Amino acid sequence: MTSHAATVGVPARQHEPELEGVYTVKLGMWVFLLSEVMFFTALIGTYVILRFANPDHFAEPGEVLSIELTAINTFVLICSSVTMVKAFAALQQGDQKGLKLWLLATIALGSGFVGVQAYEYYHLWHDGFVPVAEIYTAEGGPLYGSTFYLMTGFHGAHVTIGVFALAFVLFKAMRGSYTPQKLGGVEVVGLYWHFVDLVWIVLFTIVYLI
Amino acid sequence: MNWFLPPSVSTFGPEIDRLYYIILVITGVIFLVTEFLLVYFLIKYRKRDGHVAEYIEGSMKAEIIWTAVPAVIVIGLGIMSFGVWSDIKDPSRIPPDSYELILHGRQFEWEATYAGADGILELDCEPDEIPCGDDFSLLNQINVPVNRPVTVHLRASDVLHSFFLPDLRVKQDAVPGMSIPVWFEATQTGQYTIGCAELCGLGHYTMEGVLVVQSASEFQQWETDQAVALQDESPGGSTVTLPEETAIQTPDNAAAKEVMVASGAEDS
Amino acid sequence: MSVTATKTDFDLLPYAGEQHEELPFIRKYIFSTDHKVIGTQFLFMSLFFLLLGGMLAMMIRWQLGFPAQPIPGGELLPDTMTPGGIVLPEFYNSLVTMHGTLMIFFAIMPLLVGVFGNLLIPLQVGAADMAFPKLNMASFWMAFPAGLLMLASFTVEGGAAAAGWTAYAPLSSSGEWTGVYLGQQLWLASLFILGFSSIAGAVNYITTIINMRAPGLTWFRIPLATWSLFITSWLILLAMPILAGALIMLLSDQTIGTTFFVPETGGEPLLWQHLFWYFGHPEVYILIVPAMGITSEVIANGARKPVFGYKSMVLAIISIAFLSWIVWGHHMFMSGMNPMLGNAFMITTMLIAVPSAIKVFNWLGTIWKGNIHFHTPFLHGAAFVSLFIVGGLSGIFMAATPVDIQIHDTYFIVAHLHYVLFGGSLFGIFAGITFWYPKFFGGIMNESLGKLHFGLTFVLYNLVFFPMHSLGVQGMMRRLYDPYQYDYLADMLPLNRFISISAFLLIVVQLIFIVNFFMSMRRSNKCGPNPWRANSLEWTLPSPPPHGNFQEMPVVYRGPYEYSVPGAEEDFLPQNEPPKDVERVPGPFEQPAD
């Protein structure tokens, strides 16, 4: 509880608890991520409802999609979350070199994920599994293509944005902008990255495995 | 200003109207009481010399009362509505032996398809093949017998439409890709409005049709006349006007001027 | 807890008095990060769209009151809209679509959330600015181009969107059904961008309110205006992404050729309705909850009395917000969805009437035994209560599913929605503008003009919208270019004409407000910090507040509605005034003293 005497006459500042700056930004990122949850709920929810209402418009995932390749890709993304954790831990201990290296590793793994997904899209397209109803020739029906590309496409876009954000953070890290007292930027990008990973795990399970 | 519903001519009418009037009375009373209190307080507690406001923060008792009472009222209204709604909309409650027809809504007309002489309505008919078998179609006109349940299999060919019979208290959206059973029972002969109650494009306002409710004998006569007209029909499919006695005033829109009778296999 | 002066990654704005150099014009007024400037930018943008939306409504009313007759001055518009001044059917469908769209997304929502959120939140919580000032600036500068896209859609071939503001598929999913191609796509793109603006705003507001309250400002000492904006922000945060998903699906159906809503290739028209209304119902509460907060402020202030049941008011808003997620199906009773769902949605819809009723009774309780000063903001607030009663009660008719069979998609619904959106939200907006105008523009609006505007608007508004209940009950459908094609609607022309003429007068009367608004900005018309003798923190600051707002961190000692406290010198007691030796028994809802 504040004492009246302690604050009268003191030049005012933003009222913040101990972790000034970081706490607010972290709260902001959490709040933003809730909106992202709703966004992906709309997309994935649409798929789930349509798939269970009209199964003949769809097909067993294994018939069309490459589950093995995507499983490997999932592992890649999970690894990138681990490297992200290590990057943040390094920063907390003041290990600037570790921070930069682990950030780089995260970027590489994230880029790899996107690359593999692009490769997957290329092959699926060749098999007639497309979002365009008119030229859809794969198993199931065009609705399958529409929903698949919607979900994975927007997830891939979020990963790509994440990679750019990580690159920006790495750039700032190389200029020495982060310290154990000033770790907000790294922490919130890390939060975003973990979220994107979590969405993928849900997506992978629902779209590829079930 | 008219708060009264137009007279209804279906079995649904009294049930729906009763609910409407109950709600009208309840909300009317609440309206009068609350607005009166508002005006009364505004006048009574206006600023005056020597007058001060009373520092009152609230009353738990009041909160409980004005939470519980509205809740009871609205839940009560909800419960009253359950049965009526299910009677009307639950497909399993449609009376057996209803007279069936198919109704297609499309930009910008209604096509009503009736069973032909064989008495069988071809329900599996595709929208671009309608009518199938010996069924026949009328544009913007639905003929039904009075005092007998009727089931309309409601379909749409392009966009959403909505089948609205204001005098019979019937409304149901027509959805492309779905066939929705809509039932009603008319209680009075006459001609009634069919309207489209969902924005469907440019000609949304032109989708007026007519519901012709006929006595049992008139209706039978009408069915026979249709069969006769079909027999006179050449295989190529062309427009035929109805015999004079059954000529009915259809709404004056271009689409409704023609009455199309075609045999099944033709594309019209 | 002491407050240190450390800087962090995210530079904290200097408080007032610490401004080093003057900012250039473009940083001060165009690309400003000051919440007050951003709020003002939203204000001018929204008032423009409010007026434009009103003009579109006038054209609708002209066609309904004087069908197929040339609008005076209508020849000025392109022939694709009004050849010879006569409204074309295709333009009419665009009119009803764009009237709804502009009013909801570019007038009411930015007015309530963009304007009052920005202007009030930092001040009422005692902060120098929003948590993320640059993000706040981005929020406006995303809304503005979104508005431009909507305006542009009028000029493209095929015209503006014409599938209703609800854009039901399949009508909206292909230009072959409406004749509108690019216009509908611009509509989708515009709303998608606006969604980013809204979500960014919501993140800012939520973070600011949670994290940046002045010492002593506990949750139950926050003014209801800010509370309502807090809850609204959660609704925006969680509902707009659903709309984003739906818009993307529809846009891709139209452009890429996906098949989400196209039945021929496996799509589901009803999916659009579910997604849209899952967003849409929380959206309508976004459109009214801030106005409810504003109403509480002006009524308490005018009556010189605490808000009756302040905590209940907060809980009621929270309940409305929760319930708003489980009522969406009431827009779809006739849609062809499983009728048994209709029963479930009917019950939840009936229930959501209860917290609204609680609020009405609490407003009545606030006025009861007050000492009422009939200033213009109070009048608008009282009108809100009166008209919201009508809007809320009319909702009960359509909640009862069998009755909805008759009144769905008729003018009864139009009456209901305008009673809550105009009778409710817009009067709430007028209350808010007239109340806080002095704080932000430095001068008080003219009271006589304000009362004249209020009185005429209130009367004319009811003449326009009350009769629409009757039109609906008699069976007049919505969105009909020429309802009189229907024989049974032919004798509705006189009533429609009456409504139209009242509407023309109604919009002309708004000139009084516009004149008052601009006239009161003149330099000679200055007022002090607290012309309304109110309690919340914004009224402790100069009018207008300087950049950075507070010279010193405010400390809060009490709630915001300490009006007419027995034994106090004045009939108001600011939140940050240190306690004197006044013996006062705490009321049942009062927070314990710090």
Notes on the structure:
The complex is a heterotrimer of chains A (210), B (268) and C (594). By secondary structure, chain A is mostly helical. Chain A has a single domain (21-209), classed as Four Helix Bundle (Hemerythrin (Met), subunit A). Chain A has seven helices and no strands. Chain A has helices at 4-7, 22-53, 61-64, 67-92, 96-126, 142-174, 184-209. The termini of chain A are far apart. Chain B is of the alpha+beta class and 268 residues long. In chain B, the strands form three sheets. Chain B has a five-stranded mixed sheet, with no helix packed on it. A five-stranded mixed sheet of chain B has the order 4-10-9-6-7. A two-stranded antiparallel ribbon of chain B has the order 11-12. Residues 234-268 of chain B have low confidence and may be disordered. Chain C has 594 residues and is an all-alpha fold. Chain C has three domains: 37-47 and 87-287, Cytochrome C Oxidase, Chain A (Up-down Bundle); 290-523, Cytochrome C Oxidase, Chain A (Up-down Bundle), CATH 1.20.210; 528-594, no CATH class. The two termini of chain C are 14 Å apart. At the B-C interface, helix 1, helix 2, strand 7 and strand 9 of B face helix 3, helix 10, helix 11, helix 12 and helix 13 of C.
Kindly identify the CATH topology of the largest domain in chain C.
Cytochrome C Oxidase, Chain A
Q: Low-confidence runs of chain B (pLDDT<50, min 5 residues)? A: 234-268
The name of the CATH superfamily of the largest domain in chain C reads Cytochrome c oxidase-like, subunit I domain
- Main CATH class of the largest domain in chain C: Mainly Alpha
Descriptive labels:
heterotrimer, A: 210 residues, mainly alpha, Four Helix Bundle (Hemerythrin (Met), subunit A), 7 helices, 74% helix, elongated, disordered N terminus, C: 594 residues, Cytochrome C Oxidase, Chain A, 3 domains, globular
